[in-house]
Amino acid sequence: MRNKRLFGWREIDELGDLERMLLVFEYLPDEELMQKLERERGHGRNDYPVRAVWNSILVRVVFQHTSVESLRRELKRNAQLRELCGFDPARERMPFHLCIQPLLVD
Prior knowledge:
By secondary structure, the protein is mainly α. It contains 7 helices and no strands. It starts with 8 loop residues before the first helix and ends in a 6-residue tail after the last helix. Residues 25-94 form the Transposase InsH N-terminal domain.
């Protein structure tokens, strides 16, 4: 009996960076975490939505940014990536280091 493949690595390798990032966003089972973080945030300002900030943390890991500053530069440069994360693509200013710094270890 032959095993069926769910996907081929070659197919993943042929995808662009944004397409691979979208796969991470779609298949990572993080909904429970997002709901918890949104409850903890409460009803304060939502300049940087929890989901968008979380997605940017995933971008940092997947794209191997070595610092928050490197990630900020990438997001400022790349409107498509900002939009994919859930940020307003027209908003280049990304001073969200205070939001994500507690969750990251440099």
